[in-house]
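Long-time lurker, first post. I've been practising inverse folding by hand and with some scripts of my own, and I keep getting stuck on stretches where the structure tokens seem ambiguous. Below is the full token string for one chain I'm working on. Before anyone asks, I'm not after the true native sequence, just a reasonable design that respects the backbone. If someone could post their per-position residues I'd love to compare against what I wrote down in my notebook.
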């Protein structure tokens, strides 16, 4: 059996309330040995912490997501600092910049992002990044700190941007988007990236795979992403499973 990790899955979300434990058990039976569960808002952390504490397969990350700017308060950064100290998550995340959002406030996002980068630096934790239309801005901030690297979740930037991230110790998350026939640019990117920089992810319940549009995504579909990546790279599934799992364990110390 291949050993796999879902490096990005919101298993704490209400979408999984009725069958969360059954999903975790099926994942374990299929060789998925760890699931990283990132935080998105201060209000959602208690549920996230509770869900991760109930199962050793789930690994906690805490952060304030740029897509939820309307929910964040100025006091949330101090709350995050306390939570990082008290709950000892494996990463700060999901954090970043999203300039794709309509009506976004760049300055507010930048302040929130940099404040969380400072905490990641202080606690010597890797970060899980959400970046849309803002890779150059994110890289500019990252270069000012000596972080323990992290993951660029759902990466779809350029190879040049990828090289800049690599120099800063970052890995690249690949998920259901590569299963779509039209995603040729993305497939080419993950064909050419070094295998030691790639991790698998589902972003469940979001980012459904081809043929599952409109459905709730699940960490159980990690093997399908593995199969597609192996096809794109003309490598064996076992080679990619071993490498992506090793990359994730090494980054997060799990």
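-- Answer (accepted) --
I ran through it position by position. Result:
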């Amino acid at each position: 059996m291949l050993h796999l990790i879902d490096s990005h899955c919101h298993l704490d979300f209400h979408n999984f309330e009725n069958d969360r434990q059954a999903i975790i058990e099926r994942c374990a039976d299929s060789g998925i040995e760890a699931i990283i569960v990132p935080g998105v808002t201060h209000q959602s952390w208690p549920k996230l912490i509770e869900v991760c504490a109930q199962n050793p397969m789930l690994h906690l990350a805490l952060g304030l997501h740029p897509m939820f700017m309307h929910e964040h308060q100025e006091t949330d950064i101090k709350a995050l600092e306390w939570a990082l100290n008290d709950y000892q998550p494996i990463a700060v995340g999901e954090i970043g910049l999203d300039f794709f959002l309509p009506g976004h406030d760049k300055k507010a996002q930048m302040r929130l992002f940099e404040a969380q980068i400072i905490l990641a630096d202080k606690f010597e934790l890797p970060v899980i990044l959400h970046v849309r239309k803002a890779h150059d801005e994110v890289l500019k901030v990252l270069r000012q700190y000596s972080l323990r690297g992290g993951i660029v979740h759902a990466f779809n930037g350029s190879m040049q941007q990828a090289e800049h991230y690599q120099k800063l110790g970052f890995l690249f998350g690949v998920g259901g988007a590569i299963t779509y026939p039209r995603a040729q640019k993305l497939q080419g990117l993950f064909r050419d990236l070094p295998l030691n920089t790639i991790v698998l992810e589902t972003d469940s319940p979001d980012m459904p795979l081809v043929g599952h549009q409109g459905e709730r995504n699940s960490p159980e579909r990690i093997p399908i992403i593995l199969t597609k990546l192996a096809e794109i790279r003309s490598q064996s599934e076992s080679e990619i499973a071993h490498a992506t799992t090793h990359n994730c364990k090494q980054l997060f110390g799990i």
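A couple of notes from the structure itself: Strands lie at 4-6, 32-37, 58-62, 91-98, 127-132, 150-153, 170-174, 198-200. The mean pLDDT is 97. Happy to go over any region you disagree with.
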